[in-house]
Amino acid sequence: MRATFVNTLAEMARVDDKIMCIIGDTGFSVFEEFEKEFGERFVNVGIAEQNFVSFGAGLAAIGMKPYIYNVVSFMTLRGAEQIMLDVCYQENPVVLVGVGGGYAYATAGPTHHALQDIAMMSVLPNMTVVCPGDPIELRAVMLESKNFGKPLYIRIGRNVDPIVHTGDIDFQIGKAIKVKEGTQAVIFSTGVMLPEAVKMQEILETRGFSVGLYSMHTVKPIDRKVILESACEGKAIFTVEEHSVIGGLGDAVARVLLENMEKYPVKFKKFAVPDVFAPVTGTREYLDELVGLSVGKMVDEIETMLG
């Protein structure tokens, strides 16, 4: 997704001289061509995450359109106060792009794991939270972000994220994308788990279950309409995310269901990372298996619930 981000940003910057890219000493081998082309519209603030966020807020306040790019865990944790006060409180239309959502930097350990950012960004007033599921969705949200006019957090993966959507998509911030139709249950996936969710849906289909799939790329504001439509049809609902079980997509969907539980009692389960630090070091795939986010484990649990 990183290449999609910088290529799309460059395309946008060629027609809008207010667009700037700000990094915090990250993105080597990614931004060199952008810097050559746009010169002073590219700034490396260095390892100074709080200044990095405030610098972006200041640019937005004087009419520029800053895209600030950093590792998720560094930007959201070290710059939390500045994001809240300089960006959200003052409603500066900064686009914060966090690279390495979930276990993308798995082998670097808990200092680099990004399992709390959706919750942190969602709780901030005026902040919109989008987690594109593949490069196609990322390009779409980038193009929409240009005229968004409000603080926006975009959470992306790291290196090569597979393309899920093979055709055009109807992308709107706040509106889920239907990937597959199903009559018995529905899976809501956000961010980099979308390819795994596609595999889950396909396996369940071969086992005789009709399960729909939506890419819930926007966690805030959540698409209440599609959640309630699924609930009123009596479908079991499952959420899939590479984020803490607390405060992410699962909780956002559960909140909507709880508010309407008397009308639509449904089976519901969220698949997410337990509220613990990773006890070992390993690859993303290894850690997902360890915490129950492997395709096989999730499929078996869904089959048991539906059966």
Report on this model:
The model has no long low-confidence stretch (mean pLDDT 95). This protein has helices spanning 2-13, 32-38, 49-61, 72-78, 80-89, 117-122, 135-145, 194-206, 224-232, 249-259, 284-290, 295-306; strands spanning 19-23, 42-44, 65-71, 95-99, 128-130, 152-156, 177-180, 185-189, 211-215, 218-220, 236-244, 268-273. Helices cover 38% and strands 20% of the residues. The strands form 2 sheets. The chain has a 7-stranded mixed β-sheet, sandwiched between helices. The chain has a 5-stranded mixed β-sheet with strand order 7-9-8-11-12, sandwiched between helices.
Provide keyphrases for this structure.
307 residues; alpha/beta; 12 helices; five-stranded mixed sheet; seven-stranded mixed sheet
Provide the fold topology.
Layout: H1 2-13, E1 19-23, H2 32-38, E2 42-44, H3 49-61, E3 65-71, H4 72-78, H5 80-89, E4 95-99, H6 117-122, E5 128-130, H7 135-145, E6 152-156, E7 177-180, E8 185-189, H8 194-206, E9 211-215, E10 218-220, H9 224-232, E11 236-244, H10 249-259, E12 268-273, H11 284-290, H12 295-306
Parallel strand pairs: 1-2, 1-3, 3-4, 4-6, 5-6, 8-9, 8-11, 11-12
Antiparallel strand pairs: 5-10, 7-9
Helix pairs in contact: 1-7, 3-5, 8-12
